[in-house]
Write a structure and sequence with these properties.
Layout lengths: L1 H25 L24 H5 L5 E2 L2 E2 L1 H33 L3
Antiparallel strand pairs: 1-2
Amino acid sequence: MTSALIYLLVMVLVAAVVFLLASLVFGRGEELEPLPPGASPTRLPAEDVTADDIRGLQFQQVFRGYKMTEVDWALDRLATEVDRLRARVAELEAAREAERDPA
């Protein structure tokens, strides 16, 4: 009975050492370093959002995906920018039509 207990303790110790070594060598398997608590990588310029700004968006990862408030903020910001650009396009098209038909 004592030898089985010693065998079990040795196996647990060996497994713990192997796990710690693997963790040190291979890390946590993440591409990005974890952010400090409360930090947010989500940034967009105040105006004139470009395609590169959108491609560079990063959201804080939480247990089940991305932080919902950051994604909602980014989508709202991009929707505002699309609305602004569409309004500008409509304004320019109206001005162009007014130049064509000065009736």
